[in-house]
Design brief:
With about 260 residues, this protein is an all-alpha fold. It has helices at about 1-10, 20-30, 30-50, 65-75, 75-90, 100-135, 150-160, 165-175, 185-195, 200-215, 220-235, 235-245, 255-265. It comes from Aquimarina spongiae.
Length: about 260
């Protein structure tokens, strides 16, 4: 085992000659124990790397789950865990044979469990927080009975309440492009939330931007609905910043709810 580790270190440090590398790689192809140890050493070097902890698969790092994982690895909690693992590993580097392999296995297992917990539990937590805070039933009604000119609004809200968000968004667009003298600011909330429910985050933010520009009582809700976008996106830092903005003034819309959410994330 000790010879394995010395050879693996040389291989990973790229200090073997071309002939030595070729011979070593042939041994890896034919020796499952050596191949397993090489993979484990590569994984653990990724853990130790202070510059880029998980820069393994570049394509995998582009999706939303990987973003969440990178954000976690940048957190104080992850750094503390990493330091603890590194300390254990450093204390056992001088030991040889199966004991060192044993500790490597423990450390690698911790990383695997940590990754699984992030993907499973953290994602579930964010989904639950979004469901608890979006409060669709609290959006004031736009429906006005008996006024023919409000037919588009009535149809759009009915579609929204039936969770037909794509159709509702289309009808709200017709309303916004109609000849009404003044756009009801609530329509920007409804259309923005429809986009949010469809995971069309940029379009949702666009509607909440228009809401803010109305400078009405409803416009004060724009920051809260932006927070809902970041919550559903699991953009923790952006979410935290806008919640801090909301909680900076007790007169802001959903001040108390923002305080509670800030504590939960």
């Amino acid at each position: 085992m000790s010879n394995f580790l010395e050879e693996i270190d040389k291989y990973l440090d790229n200090i073997m000659t071309r002939e030595e590398r070729r011979a070593f790689e042939e041994r890896v192809d034919n020796d499952s124990t050596l191949a397993e140890e090489l993979k484990l050493q590569k994984d653990m070097r990724t853990v130790y790397d202070d510059n880029d902890w998980i820069e393994g698969d570049k394509t995998a790092l582009k999706n939303d789950e990987a973003k969440q994982l990178r954000n976690f690895f940048a957190s104080d909690e992850a750094k503390s865990l990493k330091a603890s693992i590194t300390e254990v590993m450093d204390n056992n580097r001088l030991n040889s044979g199966n004991k060192r392999f044993y500790f490597l296995g423990i450390a690698a297992s911790i990383i695997v469990l940590m990754t699984i917990s992030i993907f499973v539990f953290s994602e579930s937590d964010y989904n639950d927080l979004y469901a608890d805070n979006i409060a669709l039933e609290e959006i004031p009604s736009m429906i006005t009975r008996g006024e023919e000119e409000n037919e588009l609004i009535n149809n759009a809200q009915t579609l929204f309440e039936n969770k037909k968000y794509r159709e509702a968004s289309d009808v709200f667009s017709k309303y916004h492009n109609s000849d009404v003298d003044t756009i009801d600011p609530l329509s920007y909330i409804y259309k923005g939330v429809a986009h949010l429910e469809l995971n069309e985050f940029d379009k949702a933010l666009g509607q909440f931007g228009l809401l803010e520009q109305t400078h009405t009582l409803q416009s004060k809700k724009a920051d809260w609905y932006r927070a809902m976008v970041y919550l559903k996106q699991e953009e923790k830092e952006k979410l935290r910043q806008i919640l801090l903005q909301i909680t900076s003034d007790s007169t802001n819309y959903n001040f108390e709810r923002a305080k509670a959410l800030l504590e939960d994330i």
